[in-house]
Amino acid sequence: MLVRYKKTCEKIAMGLLSFMPEEKALKKLQVSMQLYETNPNWHLFMWKKEEDFVGLIGVESVEDVCVIQHITVNPSHRGDGIGKAMVNSVLQFLPCTVVTSTEITKPFIDKCMN
Ligand SMILES: CC(C)(COP(=O)(O)OP(=O)(O)OC[C@H]1O[C@@H](n2cnc3c(N)ncnc32)[C@H](O)[C@@H]1OP(=O)(O)O)[C@@H](O)C(=O)NCCC(=O)NCCS
After folding, report:
1. Domains identified in the chain, total number
2. 72 Cβ inside 6 Å of ligand 1
3. Which of 14, 45, 83, 109 lies in disulfide reach of 101, CB 3.0 to 4.6 Å?
4. What is the pLDDT of residues 4-39, one digit of tens each?
5. Which CATH number fits the domain that encloses residue 39?
């Protein structure tokens, strides 16, 4: 189930975000978290499986365009369809008509769209 990020989950969210290739450095990770917490166009969601948060998707909305900035799944839960389910579910929260990606998220988002 996709839920909106809450500050109480900050450490878990940072742990998940750190699986993104370009988010390894703590400084970069903190800048990204700050964006989600302060910029109203940046939206962070987490995938809850039973009692655990096992996935994260971060979206920048620009009018009706959703740019998937971050997407990660805990390695123990990969290959179970969670990544794809997050991409599909995020549209229930945001009024986007177009979903697009960054250079980094493109390979997986393209895979989800086909
Ligand atoms: C990318 C990621 C979110 C996928 O999550 P997931 O829950 O395992 O994905 P799903 O189970 O929904 O989909 C799996 C499918 O996507 C494919 N896939 C996995 N990672 C992929 C990637 N980086 N690029 C393209 N396809 C990918 C798998 O081969 C699989 O294909 P299949 O269904 O034909 O066998 C996860 O591997 C991850 O957290 N990676 C590290 C973070 C990262 O690199 N994010 C950016 C990705 S571009």
Report:
1. 1
2. yes
3. 109
4. 999 999 999 999 999 999 998 899 999 999 999 999
5. 3.40.630.30
